[in-house]
Amino acid sequence: MVSFVICLTAVVSAQDAIDRQLFSPEWLMQHRPQLKLTDDQARSIVELVQQKRPEIERGDQAIREARTSLEKTLSFRKIDEPQTMQAFEKLSRLEGDVRRLQFGLMVQLRTLLTPEQRVLASQLKMTPQANGNVQRRLQAKMARLQAELQKRGATGQPPTQVVRWMEPFSQLMQQGKIREAEDRLNRALRMVDLDPNAIAPAVLKPSEPSFPKREIPPLVAQSAAEIRQQVQGLKRQDVPWRKIAWKTSLLDGLKASRDENKPIILWVFIDRPIDDERC
User: Fold this and answer.
1) How many Cα neighbours within 13 Å face the side chain of 187?
2) How buried is residue 253: exposed, middle or buried, by Cβ count under 10 Å (0-12/13-18/19+)?
3) Whole-model pTM above 0.85?
4) Exposed/middle/buried for 159, CB within 10 Å: 0-12, 13-18, 19+?
5) Contact between residue 94 and residue 70 where contact means Cβ atoms under 8 Å apart
């Protein structure tokens, strides 16, 4: 099994000017209360994501195929340089196409916000708390990715391609290139068929009533006799199957069935109940 450790201890630096103006659907939903997004805005965000997701997934599939082709080209004993560069250019073009789709999605999401919400969202991204939220989000995504890679490795499918793809992640984090690092992490999740921006349907129902918590009565010390009495009270005394004259021998049961011309009910139990010899 191929394993790797990616450090997330790098301090998340302030986002650059462009990053502060763009917001992922996941980030918008996480900050819905602060931004005071309406139900219509939340619904439009989900619809946009659902609309763009198939195209992005097709792009990711094309990237996986192009990366496999490039790896195959590099594995030849004699490397064909023009063919290798052609494969690399194809991969780079496909990655650019997906980044363009993701950028376009965030531009469309920005247009859904009011001018006041845009200003507030940019301010939220600059706060230390927002930086902490970014780090927690990346840690959650990384945990999902590592769990999936471990599962695949245990089943004999070493995810070497994903591991190599994630190698620059730590360096990007240390350089403060948060968006590039998260884009790379999102791509890795899609490579193992995980959705990095899954939005729970529950976010569209902020007014859904919550169920009251059931109070658990405090524990009271009881004697062994009291506990035994309570257990006995939970047992049913009149159990119909206990009144049946069960045969403990299969041969005896077959003979009785023939003699009385009745069908057989076979009850098989793993291990025998302590106080019952009819199983």
Assistant:
1) 30
2) middle
3) no
4) buried
5) no
